[in-house]
Design brief:
Layout lengths: L36 H5 L4 E2 L3 E3 H5 L4 H10 L2 E5 L6 H12 L3 H5 L10 E3 L14 E8 L14 H27 L5 H6 L3 E9 L11 E4 L5 E5 L7 E5 L2 E5 L6 E5 L1 H6 L9 E3 L7 E9 L5 E2 L17 E2 H11 L5 H4 L5
Parallel strand pairs: 1-10, 2-3
Antiparallel strand pairs: 3-11, 4-5, 5-6, 6-13, 7-12, 8-11, 8-13, 9-10, 9-12, 14-15
Helix pairs in contact: 3-6, 4-6
The chain binds N-oxalylglycine and nickel (II) ion (NI).
N-oxalylglycine binds next to strand 6, strand 12 and strand 13.
Length: 345
């Protein structure tokens, strides 16, 4: 598939709409897609997703907990991870999104690579939009330095420091996932090859009609593993669990780890990437930092021999991550429709 290099129509920054009384039609979701904010506000749909202690995981003591979380939720929270640089990274990005619009526009992105300041995914003209702006950068292989905002001055250093620490944590998580699958310790490492990494900082402005829209539509993450640094004050992430949308209650300081589509394919569905979405609210804005750890772009990802048997034959077709990613970027969030297209049956 050829990459499209321009947006199909002028991009509107959601931040510029935050002061209105109503939201434009293009952000209004179909009634069945709208969130039930009364249930969330009442705490009915809130849940603490499985919590895993990183020290225990790194010592090989969390295999059963990792297995249960990856199988039953596709998500877990990591506590006691020792990463001290998250707050500074978050602060730097809050300062970035508070800059005057002309300054941010210097980094306006295009669908050619998505790097930079963006306000949509998918390139369908007239398509429905989500209530969020973002900034996307590659870490490995890295984006060109000019793609990084020059203001605030500490932003790049603080982001790289935080992301470097997350990368180390992920190495241990991959080992724990290999153990949880009952395969060799280096299984995940080998399957991913020279892994790629990228970061997306999500900024969800205040929304005058949060009951009509979403900050990010239902999707599963296309890559390998995602580590999300949630907003320290504001909830917003919802995970689909047992058919319900559950609002994630984060433990203070916790990082949220989730399985992406590539692990679903690689494990032949033993571990599933789970749909999630973001709700917004009228009172406060919200910022999250998503770190994506992906397989090497040009490796074929397919159900691993170790996990395919005569009784459980391969459920997914092989595909290179770079081709898969391109497909999703052009189409935008689509629940689990993208990975479902890889099914063999
Ligand atoms: C994502 C994502 C959730 C959030 O960036 O893929 O799911 O809470 N973000 O911002
Ligand atoms: Ni996501």
């Amino acid at each position: 598939m050829e990459a499209i290099v321009e947006w199909p129509e002028p991009v509107v920054r959601v931040q510029t709409l935050a002061g209105w009384d109503t939201i434009p039609d293009r952000y209004v979701k179909a009634p069945s897609e709208r969130p039930d904010l009364t249930a969330t506000a009442a705490g009915l749909a809130n849940s603490v997703i499985p919590v895993i202690d990183f020290a225990s995981l790194a010592a090989g003591g969390a295999t059963e907990a990792v297995r249960a979380a990856c199988r039953d939720w596709g998500f877990f929270q990591l506590v006691n991870h020792g990463i001290g640089s998250a707050a500074a990274a978050r602060r730097a990005w809050r300062d970035f999104f508070a800059l005057p619009m002309e300054e941010k526009q210097r980094y306006a992105n295009s669908p050619a690579t998505f790097e930079g300041y963006g306000s949509r995914l998918g390139v369908a003209k007239g398509g429905l939009l989500d209530w969020g702006d973002y900034f996307f950068l590659h870490l490995s292989p890295p984006s060109h330095p000019a793609k990084w905002p020059s203001s605030p001055p500490q932003l790049r250093e603080k982001t790289e420091e935080y992301c470097g620490a997350v990368g180390k944590v992920i190495e241990q998580v991959k080992r724990a996932i290999s153990a949880a699958l009952g395969v060799e310790e280096g299984f995940m490492e080998a399957a991913f090859g020279a892994a790629g990494a990228a970061v997306r900082v999500n900024y969800y402005p205040k929304c005058p009609q949060p009951e009509l829209t979403l900050g990010l539509s239902p999707h599963s993450d296309p890559g390998g593993l995602t580590v999300l640094l949630p907003d320290e004050h504001v909830k917003g992430l919802q995970v689909r669990h047992a058919g319900e949308w559950i609002t994630v209650d984060t433990v203070p300081g916790g990082l949220i780890v989730n399985i992406g589509d590539q692990i679903q394919v690689l494990t032949n569905g033993t571990f599933q990437s789970v749909e999630h979405r973001v709700i917004v609210n009228a009172a406060v804005d919200r910022l999250s930092i998503a770190y994506f750890h992906n397989p090497q772009d040009d490796l074929l990802i397919e159900p691993a021999n170790e996990l395919v048997t005569r009784a459980a034959p391969a459920k997914y077709k092989p595909m290179k991550y770079k081709d898969y990613k391109m497909q999703i970027r052009m189409q935008g969030p689509g629940g689990k429709s993208h990975v479902d297209l890889l099914r063999t049956t």
